[in-house]
């Protein structure tokens, strides 16, 4: 995908204002792009939006106001989904909105409501992972509704992302085995003392499009500018330093202009290529 098309997709997302049918509308507008690609771009956009607005949303006075809105709605007998509706009003993550209100209750209303006292990170995360531990029945259900409706934040979303990542690593592993490419996975490498490791280190290098590949990293996401820049800094150049040139697979596509380091040793693809050149150890 070219930068120009990516920018059009992002502009469309901004115009749609992150409503519940955004991805479906994107699929109709950009039929040439896969739903998985559009879903990934949308999720990345949501993450950036939450990061930008988090400081404002979590200001002390604002949090107190949200929580009093929630409490009043519960007392007035409003139907379930109070925090969901508040999150939509704020144009903020449902899971993060629920977390903010939960922390407030733990800190301010904990003693009167029978909660654990003090919203430590471990306590909050424990309650988010198992909302049945929240002793206030209404809040427990409200938090649960927010978590299952949020595809980007929260323990359910994290589990889905983790599962998706494993699914594509397994797919890549099968493809390497089908092509008789010997490798060591990250578990083996870590057992040998490596702290930062790619998903697969090849026992014998291969060449793709004339570029040597010693390792392959699988990313079950779209490769946009910000994420790719962060991956280069935190992962890819470290792999390059340890193992030499390698291949990164963004399974849901990437911005073509980002494939600018292949001459230096980092190649980008959106699939495992078939045009592989294998090393001949006999030199024949």
UniProtKB/TrEMBL annotation:
Its main location: cytoplasm. It comes from the Eukaryota. One of its GO terms (cellular component) is nucleus. It is found in: Cytoplasm; Nucleus. InterPro entries: CDIN1. Keywords: Cytoplasm, Nucleus. This is CDAN1-interacting nuclease 1. It comes from Armadillidium nasatum.
